[in-house]
Design a protein that fits this description.
The chain is an alpha/beta fold and about 400 residues long. It is built from 17 helices and 12 strands. The strands form 2 sheets. A 6-stranded parallel β-sheet has the order 2-1-3-4-5-6, sandwiched between helices. Strands 9-8-7-10-11-12 form a 6-stranded parallel β-sheet, with helices on both faces. The longest helix is centred in the first third of the chain and has 19 residues.
Amino acid sequence: MTDILDTIRGHIFFVTYGGGHAAALAPVAQLLRQRDVPVTILGLTTAGGYFNRMGLASLGVKDLVEHVPGYEFAVATGERLVEGRPRHSAVSAEETAAYMGVGYTALEKWVGVEDAERLFVRSDRQAFRPVDFFARLFEIAPPAALVGTNSPRSERAAFEAARDRGIPALCLVDLYAAFEIEWCASEKYADRICVLNDAVRDQFIERGVPPAKVTVTGNPSFDRIGRLDANALRRQYREKLGLDGDDRLLVWISQPEPERHPFSGITGETSLPTDIERKFAAAFAHDNKVHLVFRLHPSEDRGPSVDGARLRYGTVEEPLDDILCAADCVVTCSSTVGLEAAMLGVPVVQITRSIFSADLPLAKMGYARPADTLEEAVDEIRAAFTKPHPPCPEGQFEATKRVADAIVDLVR
Protein backbone atom coordinates (compact mmCIF):
# COMPACT_ATOMS: atom_id res chain seq x y z
CA MET A 1 0.00 0.00 0.00
CA THR A 2 1.14 3.54 -0.67
CA ASP A 3 0.50 6.70 1.28
CA ILE A 4 -1.33 8.24 -1.68
CA LEU A 5 -3.78 5.36 -2.00
CA ASP A 6 -4.32 5.34 1.76
CA THR A 7 -5.60 8.91 1.49
CA ILE A 8 -8.35 7.72 -0.87
CA ARG A 9 -9.27 4.35 0.58
CA GLY A 10 -12.25 4.78 2.92
CA HIS A 11 -12.33 8.58 2.49
CA ILE A 12 -14.91 10.86 0.90
CA PHE A 13 -13.29 11.36 -2.51
CA PHE A 14 -13.97 14.69 -4.24
CA VAL A 15 -13.23 14.82 -7.97
CA THR A 16 -13.75 18.12 -9.75
CA TYR A 17 -12.59 20.55 -12.38
CA GLY A 18 -11.89 24.24 -11.74
CA GLY A 19 -14.06 27.32 -12.14
CA GLY A 20 -17.55 27.20 -10.66
CA HIS A 21 -17.33 23.46 -10.04
CA ALA A 22 -14.43 23.74 -7.60
CA ALA A 23 -16.01 26.82 -6.01
CA ALA A 24 -19.19 24.84 -5.31
CA LEU A 25 -17.42 21.91 -3.68
CA ALA A 26 -14.67 23.68 -1.74
CA PRO A 27 -16.93 24.94 1.10
CA VAL A 28 -18.39 21.43 1.48
CA ALA A 29 -14.95 19.86 1.74
CA GLN A 30 -13.94 22.48 4.32
CA LEU A 31 -17.03 21.82 6.44
CA LEU A 32 -16.59 18.04 6.34
CA ARG A 33 -12.97 18.38 7.44
CA GLN A 34 -14.08 20.61 10.28
CA ARG A 35 -16.39 17.76 11.29
CA ASP A 36 -13.38 15.39 11.21
CA VAL A 37 -14.79 13.53 8.20
CA PRO A 38 -11.84 12.19 6.13
CA VAL A 39 -11.87 13.98 2.77
CA THR A 40 -9.47 13.67 -0.17
CA ILE A 41 -9.69 15.98 -3.19
CA LEU A 42 -8.59 15.33 -6.76
CA GLY A 43 -8.35 18.78 -8.32
CA LEU A 44 -8.39 18.49 -12.11
CA THR A 45 -6.58 21.04 -14.32
CA THR A 46 -7.04 24.53 -12.80
CA ALA A 47 -8.90 23.20 -9.74
CA GLY A 48 -5.63 22.28 -8.04
CA GLY A 49 -4.52 25.88 -7.83
CA TYR A 50 -7.95 26.98 -6.66
CA PHE A 51 -8.02 24.51 -3.78
CA ASN A 52 -4.49 25.50 -2.78
CA ARG A 53 -5.54 29.15 -2.62
CA MET A 54 -8.45 28.09 -0.43
CA GLY A 55 -6.08 26.30 1.96
CA LEU A 56 -7.36 22.86 0.92
CA ALA A 57 -4.67 20.32 0.09
CA SER A 58 -5.51 18.35 -3.05
CA LEU A 59 -4.08 15.69 -5.31
CA GLY A 60 -3.44 15.95 -9.04
CA VAL A 61 -3.56 13.26 -11.69
CA LYS A 62 0.26 13.27 -11.57
CA ASP A 63 0.10 12.03 -7.98
CA LEU A 64 -2.05 9.03 -8.88
CA VAL A 65 -0.97 7.87 -12.33
CA GLU A 66 2.07 5.81 -11.24
CA HIS A 67 -0.05 3.84 -8.78
CA VAL A 68 -2.77 2.77 -11.24
CA PRO A 69 -2.03 -0.49 -13.12
CA GLY A 70 -2.08 -0.13 -16.89
CA TYR A 71 -1.08 3.55 -16.85
CA GLU A 72 2.68 3.17 -16.40
CA PHE A 73 3.39 4.91 -19.72
CA ALA A 74 0.61 7.50 -19.54
CA VAL A 75 2.89 10.39 -18.61
CA ALA A 76 5.19 9.68 -21.54
CA THR A 77 2.13 9.57 -23.80
CA GLY A 78 0.96 12.88 -22.41
CA GLU A 79 4.35 14.49 -22.93
CA ARG A 80 4.19 13.45 -26.56
CA LEU A 81 0.67 14.85 -26.97
CA VAL A 82 1.46 18.25 -25.49
CA GLU A 83 4.82 18.74 -27.20
CA GLY A 84 4.74 22.01 -29.07
CA ARG A 85 1.29 22.95 -27.79
CA PRO A 86 0.59 25.99 -25.58
CA ARG A 87 0.19 25.14 -21.90
CA HIS A 88 -2.06 26.84 -19.38
CA SER A 89 0.15 28.90 -17.05
CA ALA A 90 -1.89 27.86 -13.99
CA VAL A 91 -1.30 24.12 -14.54
CA SER A 92 2.17 22.57 -14.20
CA ALA A 93 3.79 20.77 -17.10
CA GLU A 94 3.82 17.56 -15.05
CA GLU A 95 0.10 17.76 -14.32
CA THR A 96 -0.73 18.61 -17.92
CA ALA A 97 1.22 15.60 -19.22
CA ALA A 98 -0.36 13.26 -16.65
CA TYR A 99 -3.89 14.50 -17.34
CA MET A 100 -3.53 14.27 -21.12
CA GLY A 101 -1.75 10.92 -20.93
CA VAL A 102 -4.37 9.34 -18.70
CA GLY A 103 -7.19 10.64 -20.88
CA TYR A 104 -5.62 9.35 -24.07
CA THR A 105 -4.56 5.99 -22.61
CA ALA A 106 -8.08 5.39 -21.32
CA LEU A 107 -9.47 6.40 -24.71
CA GLU A 108 -7.30 3.79 -26.41
CA LYS A 109 -8.49 1.13 -23.98
CA TRP A 110 -12.09 2.17 -24.67
CA VAL A 111 -12.23 2.44 -28.47
CA GLY A 112 -8.92 1.03 -29.70
CA VAL A 113 -5.73 2.63 -30.97
CA GLU A 114 -6.94 3.73 -34.42
CA ASP A 115 -10.28 5.17 -33.27
CA ALA A 116 -8.60 6.91 -30.34
CA GLU A 117 -6.25 8.73 -32.68
CA ARG A 118 -9.13 9.71 -34.95
CA LEU A 119 -11.30 10.97 -32.09
CA PHE A 120 -8.44 12.93 -30.54
CA VAL A 121 -7.62 14.65 -33.83
CA ARG A 122 -11.28 15.62 -34.19
CA SER A 123 -12.17 16.57 -30.61
CA ASP A 124 -8.89 16.88 -28.67
CA ARG A 125 -9.42 16.32 -24.93
CA GLN A 126 -13.19 16.66 -25.35
CA ALA A 127 -12.98 13.00 -26.45
CA PHE A 128 -11.63 11.91 -23.06
CA ARG A 129 -13.75 9.91 -20.60
CA PRO A 130 -11.30 7.88 -18.49
CA VAL A 131 -13.73 5.41 -16.89
CA ASP A 132 -11.06 2.69 -17.03
CA PHE A 133 -8.58 4.81 -15.05
CA PHE A 134 -11.02 5.45 -12.22
CA ALA A 135 -12.27 1.85 -12.26
CA ARG A 136 -8.71 0.60 -11.72
CA LEU A 137 -8.08 3.26 -9.06
CA PHE A 138 -11.26 2.36 -7.17
CA GLU A 139 -10.41 -1.33 -7.37
CA ILE A 140 -7.22 -0.85 -5.37
CA ALA A 141 -8.35 2.15 -3.28
CA PRO A 142 -12.14 2.24 -2.96
CA PRO A 143 -13.36 5.46 -1.32
CA ALA A 144 -16.25 5.56 1.12
CA ALA A 145 -18.11 7.78 -1.35
CA LEU A 146 -17.51 9.82 -4.47
CA VAL A 147 -18.51 13.50 -4.68
CA GLY A 148 -18.40 15.54 -7.88
CA THR A 149 -20.43 17.85 -10.06
CA ASN A 150 -22.20 17.71 -13.42
CA SER A 151 -18.97 18.39 -15.34
CA PRO A 152 -18.09 16.09 -18.28
CA ARG A 153 -14.98 14.00 -19.02
CA SER A 154 -13.16 12.99 -15.83
CA GLU A 155 -15.96 13.79 -13.38
CA ARG A 156 -18.46 11.89 -15.50
CA ALA A 157 -16.00 9.00 -15.82
CA ALA A 158 -15.45 8.87 -12.06
CA PHE A 159 -19.20 8.62 -11.43
CA GLU A 160 -19.63 5.81 -13.94
CA ALA A 161 -16.70 3.89 -12.46
CA ALA A 162 -18.07 4.36 -8.93
CA ARG A 163 -21.50 3.06 -9.86
CA ASP A 164 -19.97 0.00 -11.55
CA ARG A 165 -18.19 -0.83 -8.28
CA GLY A 166 -21.10 -0.03 -5.99
CA ILE A 167 -19.43 3.03 -4.44
CA PRO A 168 -22.00 5.56 -3.12
CA ALA A 169 -21.92 8.76 -5.16
CA LEU A 170 -23.33 12.27 -4.81
CA CYS A 171 -23.51 14.80 -7.64
CA LEU A 172 -23.82 18.51 -6.93
CA VAL A 173 -25.42 20.19 -9.95
CA ASP A 174 -23.98 23.67 -9.76
CA LEU A 175 -26.58 25.39 -11.95
CA TYR A 176 -29.13 24.22 -14.51
CA ALA A 177 -27.50 21.26 -16.27
CA ALA A 178 -28.97 22.32 -19.61
CA PHE A 179 -26.87 19.73 -21.45
CA GLU A 180 -25.35 17.75 -18.59
CA ILE A 181 -28.74 16.33 -17.60
CA GLU A 182 -28.27 13.91 -20.50
CA TRP A 183 -25.86 11.91 -18.34
CA CYS A 184 -26.61 13.20 -14.83
CA ALA A 185 -30.12 11.73 -15.00
CA SER A 186 -28.74 8.32 -15.97
CA GLU A 187 -28.95 5.38 -13.60
CA LYS A 188 -25.18 5.03 -14.07
CA TYR A 189 -24.52 8.40 -12.48
CA ALA A 190 -25.13 9.34 -8.84
CA ASP A 191 -27.16 7.88 -5.97
CA ARG A 192 -28.00 11.40 -4.78
CA ILE A 193 -28.32 14.60 -6.79
CA CYS A 194 -28.20 18.02 -5.10
CA VAL A 195 -29.63 20.90 -7.14
CA LEU A 196 -29.97 24.67 -7.09
CA ASN A 197 -33.74 25.09 -6.83
CA ASP A 198 -37.15 23.48 -7.39
CA ALA A 199 -37.11 24.19 -11.11
CA VAL A 200 -33.95 22.13 -11.57
CA ARG A 201 -35.34 19.37 -9.36
CA ASP A 202 -38.51 19.22 -11.47
CA GLN A 203 -36.37 18.99 -14.58
CA PHE A 204 -34.63 15.87 -13.25
CA ILE A 205 -37.86 14.27 -12.10
CA GLU A 206 -39.36 14.86 -15.55
CA ARG A 207 -36.42 12.92 -16.95
CA GLY A 208 -37.37 9.93 -14.83
CA VAL A 209 -35.11 10.39 -11.81
CA PRO A 210 -36.90 9.18 -8.63
CA PRO A 211 -37.86 12.19 -6.48
CA ALA A 212 -36.14 10.71 -3.44
CA LYS A 213 -32.78 10.96 -5.24
CA VAL A 214 -33.03 14.71 -5.93
CA THR A 215 -32.58 17.21 -3.10
CA VAL A 216 -32.81 21.00 -3.32
CA THR A 217 -29.76 22.31 -1.45
CA GLY A 218 -28.72 25.42 -3.32
CA ASN A 219 -25.17 26.03 -4.51
CA PRO A 220 -22.58 26.28 -1.70
CA SER A 221 -20.49 28.75 -3.68
CA PHE A 222 -23.25 31.32 -3.07
CA ASP A 223 -23.35 30.89 0.71
CA ARG A 224 -20.69 33.50 1.25
CA ILE A 225 -23.03 36.16 -0.15
CA GLY A 226 -25.12 35.96 2.99
CA ARG A 227 -22.04 36.48 5.16
CA LEU A 228 -20.59 39.46 3.33
CA ASP A 229 -20.42 42.95 4.72
CA ALA A 230 -21.23 44.07 1.20
CA ASN A 231 -21.42 47.79 1.96
CA ALA A 232 -17.96 47.78 3.58
CA LEU A 233 -16.47 45.81 0.68
CA ARG A 234 -18.03 48.23 -1.78
CA ARG A 235 -16.57 51.21 0.01
CA GLN A 236 -13.09 49.68 0.38
CA TYR A 237 -12.72 48.55 -3.22
CA ARG A 238 -13.99 51.79 -4.65
CA GLU A 239 -11.52 53.67 -2.44
CA LYS A 240 -8.78 51.40 -3.78
CA LEU A 241 -9.69 52.43 -7.32
CA GLY A 242 -10.01 56.09 -6.35
CA LEU A 243 -13.71 56.28 -7.26
CA ASP A 244 -15.87 59.21 -6.17
CA GLY A 245 -19.42 58.76 -4.97
CA ASP A 246 -20.97 59.49 -8.34
CA ASP A 247 -18.46 57.42 -10.36
CA ARG A 248 -19.82 54.28 -12.01
CA LEU A 249 -18.00 50.96 -12.12
CA LEU A 250 -18.61 48.52 -14.97
CA VAL A 251 -17.42 44.95 -14.44
CA TRP A 252 -17.08 42.56 -17.37
CA ILE A 253 -16.86 38.86 -16.45
CA SER A 254 -15.15 37.12 -19.34
CA GLN A 255 -15.16 33.46 -20.37
CA PRO A 256 -13.45 31.60 -23.22
CA GLU A 257 -15.51 31.22 -26.38
CA PRO A 258 -14.40 28.07 -28.24
CA GLU A 259 -14.93 27.39 -31.92
CA ARG A 260 -17.69 24.90 -31.14
CA HIS A 261 -19.99 24.17 -28.21
CA PRO A 262 -18.86 20.85 -26.67
CA PHE A 263 -22.42 19.50 -26.42
CA SER A 264 -24.69 21.26 -28.91
CA GLY A 265 -22.11 21.66 -31.67
CA ILE A 266 -23.09 25.32 -32.23
CA THR A 267 -20.28 27.32 -33.81
CA GLY A 268 -18.84 30.09 -31.66
CA GLU A 269 -17.06 33.41 -32.19
CA THR A 270 -13.65 32.85 -30.61
CA SER A 271 -12.98 36.59 -30.66
CA LEU A 272 -16.19 37.48 -28.78
CA PRO A 273 -14.56 38.13 -25.35
CA THR A 274 -11.93 40.46 -26.77
CA ASP A 275 -14.48 42.09 -29.10
CA ILE A 276 -16.58 42.90 -26.04
CA GLU A 277 -13.60 44.38 -24.22
CA ARG A 278 -12.70 46.60 -27.17
CA LYS A 279 -16.31 47.71 -27.56
CA PHE A 280 -16.66 48.68 -23.89
CA ALA A 281 -13.28 50.42 -23.80
CA ALA A 282 -14.21 52.49 -26.83
CA ALA A 283 -17.78 53.22 -25.70
CA PHE A 284 -16.71 54.69 -22.35
CA ALA A 285 -13.29 56.08 -23.31
CA HIS A 286 -14.43 59.69 -23.01
CA ASP A 287 -16.77 59.34 -20.03
CA ASN A 288 -14.62 60.33 -17.07
CA LYS A 289 -17.18 59.09 -14.57
CA VAL A 290 -17.13 55.48 -15.83
CA HIS A 291 -14.45 53.05 -14.68
CA LEU A 292 -14.02 49.52 -15.98
CA VAL A 293 -12.74 46.27 -14.48
CA PHE A 294 -12.35 43.28 -16.78
CA ARG A 295 -12.11 39.92 -15.03
CA LEU A 296 -10.81 36.99 -17.08
CA HIS A 297 -11.92 33.42 -16.44
CA PRO A 298 -9.26 31.22 -14.74
CA SER A 299 -9.08 29.07 -17.87
CA GLU A 300 -8.44 32.08 -20.15
CA ASP A 301 -4.71 32.00 -20.56
CA ARG A 302 -4.34 35.36 -22.31
CA GLY A 303 -3.27 38.88 -21.57
CA PRO A 304 -5.24 42.13 -21.76
CA SER A 305 -6.75 42.95 -25.14
CA VAL A 306 -7.06 46.70 -24.50
CA ASP A 307 -5.87 49.37 -22.12
CA GLY A 308 -7.22 52.67 -20.92
CA ALA A 309 -6.87 55.35 -18.28
CA ARG A 310 -9.81 54.11 -16.20
CA LEU A 311 -9.60 50.45 -17.14
CA ARG A 312 -7.89 47.61 -15.32
CA TYR A 313 -7.86 43.83 -15.48
CA GLY A 314 -8.60 41.97 -12.27
CA THR A 315 -6.40 39.08 -11.15
CA VAL A 316 -7.25 35.64 -9.75
CA GLU A 317 -5.70 36.72 -6.45
CA GLU A 318 -8.12 39.66 -6.17
CA PRO A 319 -11.28 38.70 -4.24
CA LEU A 320 -14.19 38.53 -6.65
CA ASP A 321 -16.61 39.49 -3.90
CA ASP A 322 -14.90 42.85 -3.53
CA ILE A 323 -15.29 43.58 -7.23
CA LEU A 324 -18.96 42.57 -7.36
CA CYS A 325 -19.89 44.59 -4.29
CA ALA A 326 -18.25 47.67 -5.79
CA ALA A 327 -19.89 47.28 -9.19
CA ASP A 328 -22.72 49.40 -10.54
CA CYS A 329 -23.29 47.01 -13.44
CA VAL A 330 -21.98 43.52 -14.22
CA VAL A 331 -21.91 42.11 -17.75
CA THR A 332 -21.54 38.44 -18.64
CA CYS A 333 -22.46 35.99 -21.37
CA SER A 334 -23.13 32.99 -19.15
CA SER A 335 -20.98 33.11 -16.02
CA THR A 336 -22.30 32.09 -12.61
CA VAL A 337 -20.73 35.33 -11.42
CA GLY A 338 -23.69 37.08 -13.03
CA LEU A 339 -26.01 35.11 -10.78
CA GLU A 340 -23.93 36.06 -7.74
CA ALA A 341 -24.05 39.73 -8.74
CA ALA A 342 -27.84 39.55 -9.09
CA MET A 343 -28.06 38.01 -5.60
CA LEU A 344 -26.12 41.03 -4.35
CA GLY A 345 -28.65 43.34 -6.01
CA VAL A 346 -26.23 44.57 -8.70
CA PRO A 347 -27.77 45.22 -12.15
CA VAL A 348 -26.68 42.51 -14.60
CA VAL A 349 -26.61 42.60 -18.39
CA GLN A 350 -26.39 39.29 -20.26
CA ILE A 351 -24.93 39.29 -23.76
CA THR A 352 -26.93 36.54 -25.42
CA ARG A 353 -24.85 35.97 -28.57
CA SER A 354 -22.42 33.54 -26.89
CA ILE A 355 -22.81 29.84 -27.66
CA PHE A 356 -23.07 29.36 -23.88
CA SER A 357 -25.71 32.01 -23.17
CA ALA A 358 -28.56 29.49 -23.35
CA ASP A 359 -26.79 27.23 -20.84
CA LEU A 360 -27.37 29.77 -18.08
CA PRO A 361 -30.39 31.85 -19.15
CA LEU A 362 -29.97 34.66 -16.63
CA ALA A 363 -32.09 37.06 -18.65
CA LYS A 364 -34.95 34.59 -19.16
CA MET A 365 -34.99 33.83 -15.45
CA GLY A 366 -35.23 37.48 -14.49
CA TYR A 367 -31.70 37.89 -13.15
CA ALA A 368 -30.40 40.08 -16.00
CA ARG A 369 -31.29 42.39 -18.84
CA PRO A 370 -30.71 40.72 -22.25
CA ALA A 371 -28.56 42.23 -24.98
CA ASP A 372 -28.40 40.53 -28.37
CA THR A 373 -25.74 42.90 -29.71
CA LEU A 374 -22.83 44.77 -28.20
CA GLU A 375 -24.55 48.07 -28.99
CA GLU A 376 -27.58 46.94 -26.99
CA ALA A 377 -25.27 45.93 -24.14
CA VAL A 378 -23.81 49.44 -24.00
CA ASP A 379 -27.32 50.93 -23.94
CA GLU A 380 -28.37 48.62 -21.09
CA ILE A 381 -25.22 49.52 -19.14
CA ARG A 382 -25.92 53.23 -19.50
CA ALA A 383 -29.49 52.63 -18.33
CA ALA A 384 -28.24 50.78 -15.27
CA PHE A 385 -25.90 53.66 -14.45
CA THR A 386 -28.84 56.08 -14.21
CA LYS A 387 -30.28 54.18 -11.26
CA PRO A 388 -29.00 54.39 -7.67
CA HIS A 389 -27.06 51.41 -6.38
CA PRO A 390 -29.55 49.12 -4.61
CA PRO A 391 -29.10 48.13 -0.97
CA CYS A 392 -27.18 44.91 -0.54
CA PRO A 393 -29.30 41.99 0.65
CA GLU A 394 -28.87 40.42 4.05
CA GLY A 395 -29.40 36.88 5.26
CA GLN A 396 -27.75 33.49 5.57
CA PHE A 397 -27.44 30.81 2.92
CA GLU A 398 -27.12 27.19 4.05
CA ALA A 399 -26.32 25.17 0.93
CA THR A 400 -22.95 24.04 2.28
CA LYS A 401 -24.51 22.46 5.35
CA ARG A 402 -27.27 20.82 3.30
CA VAL A 403 -24.83 19.22 0.86
CA ALA A 404 -22.49 18.11 3.64
CA ASP A 405 -25.41 16.53 5.51
CA ALA A 406 -26.48 14.71 2.34
CA ILE A 407 -22.97 13.27 1.93
CA VAL A 408 -22.84 12.07 5.53
CA ASP A 409 -26.31 10.57 5.18
CA LEU A 410 -25.16 8.77 2.01
CA VAL A 411 -22.43 6.82 3.80
CA ARG A 412 -24.30 5.98 6.99
